[in-house]
Amino acid sequence: MEKVTFIGLGNMGGPMAANLVKAGFRVTAFDLSESALAHAVENGCERGENAQQAAQGADVVISMLPSGDGVKGLYLGARGLLQALDPRTLVIDSSTISVNDARQLIAAAASRDIRAIDAPVSGGTAAAAAGTLSFMCGGDAEAVAAARPLLEAMGARLFHAGAAGAGQIAKICNNMLLAIHMIGTAEALQMGVDNGLDPSVLSEIIRASSGGNWSLEKYNPYPGVMDGVPASSGYAGGFSVALMLKDLGLAMDTAAGSASSTPLGALAKNLYQLHGSSEENRRLDFSSIQNLFRRPAGK
Ligand code: NAD
Q1: Which of 1, 77, 150, 278 qualifies as a FRET site for 26, CA 20 to 30 Å off?
Q2: CA neighbours closer than 13 Å in the CB half-sphere of residue 282
Q3: What are the pLDDT digits (tens) for 107-135?
Q4: What is the ipTM of this complex?
Q5: H or E stretch including 148?
Q6: What is the pTM of this model?
Q7: Residues lining ligand 1, Cβ inside 6 A
Q8: What are the structural domains of the chain?
Q9: Where does the 3-hydroxyisobutyrate dehydrogenase-like NAD-binding domain start and stop, copy by copy (predicted)?
Q10: How far is the CA of 102 from the centre of ligand 1 (A)?
């Protein structure tokens, strides 16, 4: 049986690793957080003492880390994993990172005859738990084909966007649009509430009308409208404001590089910066942008 190593067991990586175990893969896991690692072990992963030990003899290494610096720190340099992996090992990085960081990793892997792809995901924590993520892959077709059985154990849809880094480009286009429609949904719901409407009734009406969108229908930001979303549990868990800010920064860097005009993306980044000006808010789910528009009680 293939030996799979999974590094980064947070809100996304934890349930993704658990789904690989459920699908019958032997998974050795590692995370810097003891509680995240302990949870993965409860879900059937073998415990890695550190990244190097966890990746020993691995056929496939999957990473799901918060930042490009974290990914480069894991794989590159004299003590990086690429130095220790066997040729032909398959590396799948599902973190959302810059296109340049993804290309640097894939080129460094290729120089050691290690196959690597960028495979960021969409769908959020609920899809990670349900095994219904969308993967957007960049890299050689042969490496993407080799990754398919693993990605299918964690997701419902797999797209080959193009060459190395193409998955990351698709991902930040998607997340820039996600930020824009989340903010639009929050301000529309608030205007309705400020004018006496019930947010659940208004959501139902918009859902059946031309303003319907993913943020409203699957991830409603107004507390109490939908069960099982962060808005109904104090905006805990989910996709943090800090991570959305990172993605909007990546989107703006990409737009600058291609001289693309992204006025709404720039405004969305500004509004998330305003909302995320406190450490407390940066930890909340990104749908907490609703709080930027809510009035104090009685106003
Ligand atoms: P998270 O902060 O919940 O988890 C990240 C985990 O990585 C943490 O447990 C942390 O301890 C661990 N970690 C960090 N550096 C490490 C290292 N060097 N070695 C081992 N472990 C390390 O983040 P998340 O929400 O799971 O997001 C992970 C990635 O997925 C990010 O790039 C994010 O942009 C992307 N993403 C998140 C969502 C979402 O809804 N949360 C959706 C799509 C994509």
Answers
A1: 77
A2: 10
A3: 999 999 999 999 999 988 989 999 999 99
A4: 0.99
A5: helix 141-154
A6: 0.93
A7: 7-13, 30-33, 36, 51, 64-66, 70, 73-74, 95-96, 121, 124-125, 238-239, 243
A8: 3-164 (3.40.50.720), 169-293 (1.10.1040.10)
A9: 165-290
A10: 16
